[in-house]
Amino acid sequence: xxxxxxxxxxxxxxxxxxxxxxxxxxxxxxxxxxxxxxxxxxxxxxxxxxxxxxxxxxxxxxxxxxxxxxxxxxxxxxxxxxxxxxxxxxxxxxxxxxxxxxxxxxxxxxxxxxxxxxxxxxxxxxxxxxxxxxxxxxxxxxxxxxxxxxxxxxxxxxxxxxxxxxxxxxxxxxxxxxxxxxxxxxxxxxxxxxxxxxxxxxxxxxxxxxxxxxxxxxxxxxxxxxxxxxxxxxxxxx
Length: 238
Known about the structure:
about 240 residues, mainly alpha, Arc Repressor Mutant, subunit A, 3 domains, 3-stranded antiparallel sheet, 12 helices, 3 strands
């Protein structure tokens, strides 16, 4: 079965399994234009890897999508398998991540870790929480367990500058000065160039910085109307 034939079959299966499953919804979730999806369904052209990844990230779960891409793009199979080993979601979420609304961004981040209650989401977002949950659930990014919403993926790596800038904008727009200690996006620091002494020194420095930051963010004498953002960068950081 060719790439286009199998992709058509999987798209049809996805649309048939959902009450509102159609190409317009798939376009919104994947970031692939409606005309492009129609051309795929009419077998008018063979999509490239990026387009296929964006579609597959919506219509299949991670395991199925990984197998699909390995079959049709064998040259990239080692990369997909390596990402699976280190716990990263293999699928390209560019289409979805670049089009997240402020509400969807908040739900996605609040649902990370131990998750967030439906009541908490409605408290912060009102009815918009339901719309955000519906879209993120359809994209297989979150799941609802009783009254708790949790993310279904461990890590998301943003490698496209447009994605990074979009998420920085969303993070700024979501900043709530009244809830300094509230949940939010977490950014990690990674290095593979340290020895044991360096690791211990970095750990100590982070603990000292954390204590000072807690003091700054909780002491009323520092409260005001200014927005503060800092970015850490290094050739050894990822």
